[in-house]
Design brief:
Two copies of one chain form a homodimer. Chain A is an alpha/beta fold. Chain A folds into three domains: 87 residues, Winged helix-like DNA-binding domain superfamily/Winged helix DNA-binding domain (Arc Repressor Mutant, subunit A, Orthogonal Bundle), CATH 1.10.10; 117 residues, Aspartate Aminotransferase, domain 1; 225 residues, 3-Layer(aba) Sandwich (Aspartate Aminotransferase, domain 2). Chain A has 16 helices and 17 strands. In chain A, strands 4-12-11-10-9-5-6 form a seven-stranded mixed sheet, with helices on both faces. Chain A has a four-stranded antiparallel sheet with strand order 13-14-17-16, covered by helices on one side. In chain A, strands 1-2 form a two-stranded antiparallel sheet. The first copy, chain A, is globular, with a radius of gyration of 25 Å. Chains A and B meet through helix 1, helix 4, helix 5, helix 6 and helix 8 of A and helix 1, helix 4, helix 5, helix 6 and helix 8 of B. The structure holds pyridoxal-5'-phosphate (2 copies). One pyridoxal-5'-phosphate binds next to helix 8 of chain B. The site of one pyridoxal-5'-phosphate has 13 residues of chain B, from helix 8.
Chain lengths: 479, 479
């Protein structure tokens, strides 16, 4: 975020900054108690020297609007614009701290902020690079809009019917036979998890998942006081044999799995394990959420059938999304499963956001039904394959003897585990100083202190090369 | 929902139905324990006589796939497709029942379903009629899409920056001075409430609101175990004088209000009350959520300034939406307030759906910045005014002596209160039988057993006339 000052206005820059901050305070944007950004950050925001910022803050402190805080930082004082308040000032910080949903981990908050910095090399980002997003084709879809086919009203609870028909046909190609009534359109796969969390589980419910897992980087279930238990994972996916013991020890209300091109490891569950998992699910009456966000992004050969295609009993809730194959900005995903469950989730969805963007639903239906989905996927696979191979080559070149990893057969990620202990948060910080973002393994498993999730979907091939080289060097220094 | 049978295929219709239901059972769409739709509903879905449905169900029952339930209804039995199961079958109904978020009230679920029925007269619906939605202009906006300006990636946590700049300028016209950093883009105003509920409040927190209120028709706060307290309301809005006593008795962590063209009453909070409310908020350190969904839809003269424009202390979180003025399908709304609060809500939003559709955000920015917002608003006001006046005229004609109401100065609603007691749920049912949907007052206040919310935004003027006439007649019969 940048704020432009009027450099030719004659008003000194520090006074302009003073004025802007005063306005933020007087308008209640920065209410009393707000910790304002650090001097370094402010200098960055206003694009001035730090001394200019200091001059502005000194002025505001002298006026009694700001004060230094014990232990560092500057906060907005309790005097309001018009003088001392008669009443204690509303303490928003109490509200912000006591809300039910947990905040993102500080590392993820930092990543969310830094990702929008210019020239940063994003080695951790789980999304397609901008040059892989289909701007031209999407533009064409929009240009073909017919007023009569657009949808601008509130949609049916499960989402636009035509879009669900298109999705049902799309799922059939994967061996998943569901009618449009058993599909709910959601705003991305993440929202499916959120709805399941508040719609299908009790507080304290036990959720099993791979360890590491994407699920650990979220607080969706934990914020509702649910307990997460991690199951061991290898290159053939999670081992269904351990589930029964885990259930005996902790209970098991739900199992969440990413069988194809798992986030963060890139692993693919083998066919025999898939079959066994379905059997275990039957035997233990254990519902499964199958997150198939990456299933279409195979790079060498298609993965085995989704669990849902093997499920004759309605034990599996299948989750998909357009985020990883088309565009995350569309915010279109889906859940398919038993109709009474889908009805329940649809009702909760109506209660939290009245359905997903109908513009996005319309574009998604056009995208898939026109054949663009299949066509574009080929291009993306091709490009991802090149990037994966570059990443693997660079790992060989720079990480040899330093770490181990498996070649992923699809998706976005390589799970890199250092052979010797090192301070992973220090590696994150040092890389950030060099303008490189990496995702520490600890985001996905508290104990994965020697791993990072490397993504080859975002950085260009030259950035991959440079980034991997520099991270290897930093890691060596830290060991 | 309709399922088309192959009428010329030679296979008897009842066998086709049998086959379709078998598939639903064998694919797990209708898992064991599922209560299947009633015979009447199935006849409707398949567009056949009830006897055809009965023949199909008898066949399935003979095969052991369905069974009649004591007390009525037919459920899927515990035998799976391949014979008797060895293990107890997964009980989804337990999951559906025990989830944390409360289901919508049965009346609202019924309304949500019936709204999509053909030829129904919707006298309760809180949305613009299809003919008032700007299909032609939206098509033009889409056709003008430039690939370079489209946004297809994940957006910043608070939403696309340019869109927030456009919104900041838009809010300035209402006297609300906030920078883009203090604005969060959400998927409709409803989502703002959902985020506030899980982001800013503790369990058991006390939320004050008008009685009746839109808020009572939702379970957003109650599902998180928060307590709602209703404040008395008259044509000049809620009376701030009672807040202090309410706080003493129950506590008060937040006040939710719809000052302009309140849902469901249409009332407008007077200027002196707005000023007083801001003072009370300061004195009691009471945060306010101002829901301004209808503020721009004044029909005679603009309402007084929003509360947020009077708030110098950052006590007000201002919520707006494009749903009532442009298109609900866009799912674009916003929250403006103190930056640390907006940061917190943005973090929760990232954790629940990674941001709103960027296609919708892009269209919203274009819509507002191009001047189409202002231009289209004039047309809509004009049309709404005609419909309001029609509704008022019909009320005079048919409801005279039967009920009382106030003329709304904007928005969508007239709150009609019968002068004598009547069974409001019977009125709802009877109207539905005549293909008319009305919203019983009890949705918005359990005790409002003599009121209905009449909406003039959806039904055409002739439907308004017919609908109001018939409802009056039914009400007289019930008294
Ligand atoms: C396994 C998995 N599931 C779900 C998501 C969420 O994707 P979206 O909500 O954009 O569909 C992601 C994104 O990182 C993911 O990796
Ligand atoms: C007062 C009020 N607020 C919020 C909403 C939700 O609107 P949306 O989520 O579509 O913006 C409504 C819709 O009925 C409303 O009446």
């Amino acid at each position: 975020m940048k704020i432009r000052l009027e450099r030719s206005s004659g008003v000194p820059l520090y006074q302009q900054i003073e004025q802007i901050i005063k306005e933020k305070i007087s308008q209640g944007e920065w209410p009393p108690g707000t910790k304002i950004p650090s001097q370094r950050k402010l200098a960055d925001i206003f694009e001035v020297n730090r001394s200019t910022v200091t001059a502005a803050l000194d002025e505001l402190t002298a006026q009694g609007l700001l004060e230094g805080k014990r232990g560092g930082g500057t906060i907005v004082t309790n005097r309001t614009w018009s003088g001392l308040t008669e009443w204690p000032v509303l303490d928003w910080t109490g509200y912000v701290r006591s809300g039910i949903h947990r905040p993102n981990s500080l590392t993820i908050q930092e990543i969310n902020r830094q990702e929008f910095k210019k020239d940063i090399i994003r080695l951790g980002t789980g999304e397609l690079a901008p040059e892989l997003l289909p701007y031209q084709q999407m533009k064409k879809i929009l240009q073909d809009a017919e007023a009569g086919k657009l949808m601008l009203g509130y949609e049916e609870p499960k989402g636009n019917r035509y879009t669900r028909e298109v999705l049902a046909a799309h799922l059939k190609e994967k061996g998943i036979h569901v009618s449009p009534d058993s599909i709910l359109i959601v705003s991305g796969a993440l929202q499916a998890l959120q709805l399941i969390s508040i719609g299908l589980l009790k507080r304290k419910a036990a959720v099993l998942t791979e360890k590491p897992s994407y699920l650990y980087s979220l607080h969706i279930f934990q914020s509702m006081e649910m307990r997460l238990y991690g199951l061991p994972l290898d290159e053939r996916g999670l081992d269904p044999a351990v589930i029964s013991a885990c259930k005996k020890q902790h209970g098991a209300d739900l199992l969440y799995t990413i069988p194809s091109f798992h986030n963060p490891t890139g692993f693919q569950m083998a066919e025999d394990r898939r079959k066994e998992l379905i059997q275990v699910s039957k035997r233990l009456s254990l519902p499964i959420i199958e997150d198939d966000a990456y299933g279409d992004l195979w790079l060498d050969m298609p993965p085995p059938s989704p669990l849902k295609a093997l499920d004759q009993d309605g034990n599996v809730l299948y989750v998909g999304t357009l985020s990883k194959t088309v565009s995350p900005g569309l915010r279109i995903g889906w859940v398919a499963g038993p109709e009474p469950v889908i009805d329940r989730l649809a009702d909760i969805k109506m209660q939290t956001d009245y359905g997903s963007s109908s513009l996005s639903q319309w574009a998604a239906a056009k995208w898939i039904s026109s054949g663009l989905y299949a066509e574009n996927l080929k291009l993306i696979r091709n490009e991802l394959k090149k990037r994966r191979d570059t990443a693997l080559r660079c790992l060989e070149a720079y990480f040899g003897g330093l770490a181990r990893w498996e070649k992923p057969r699809g998706g976005f990620y390589i799970w890199v585990t250092f052979l010797k202990p090192l301070a992973i948060s220090a590696l994150f910080e040092k890389a950030l100083k060099k303008n490189i973002l990496i995702n520490p393994g600890t985001l996905y498993d508290k104990e994965a202190k020697q791993s990072i999730r490397l993504s080859y979907s975002y950085a260009s091939r030259s950035d991959l090369e440079n980034g991997i080289r520099i991270v290897a060097q930093l890691a060596r220094e830290l060991m």
